[in-house]
């Protein structure tokens, strides 16, 4: 089968099963993507032209707002609340214009600015996996807050890096995180889910992984608030049930994955975490 990832370990009977992430109406067109969904339009178009020799004309690529996410939009520096967007996203030379005022910028200038920002982020990826790396990503995130739309692909990329770091490095392990940083990780996960829900709706691996990441700070924050006497009873029960629902959805999405892959392993871990959380609720008399 062309354009489908394959394995050296053939399935039983050499059968291939394709599962849709969303409901498909009878007669509807089946679509796939050749590019990374969490890349901006200009990056995706350049990749398609370089490797596939065509310009994509899909709804997202033709929309300057990228389906309302403003994934490539920049904040206007000449007015309040204006966003600078491409006048023709499929043309790298097209002019960029503010949505509120008359401020205009050349496409080449936008491309250069993005190149500089991306280079700074790429440099951070070579840093040692430790506290300094996390703190550097947070500094860069704040640095470009006044320049980029909150859901811009560069911000989204930084969020991914921060989600991987919070809870996994010395000084920032999950039990060590103060409430404000637990809330920070929750916010990071939810912000990326807002984008995923638009670009990759339904039962996607990306969604499953993020749901798993989201459940942990919710549980630890609930435990912290319970320990400080600010959360108990029904509110505590609802918070833990929220975490269980996230684990349930995550494991449901990943249950079809090969158990030897990272996704398959995570599906099993999510199930175990769900059982442990339910047992903890029973012990605390918070069961159904």
TrEMBL record:
Superkingdom field: Eukaryota
Coiled coil ranges: none
InterPro entries membership: SET_SmydA-8, TPR-like_helical_dom_sf
Name by which UniProt lists this protein: Protein msta, isoform A
Originating species: Culex pipiens
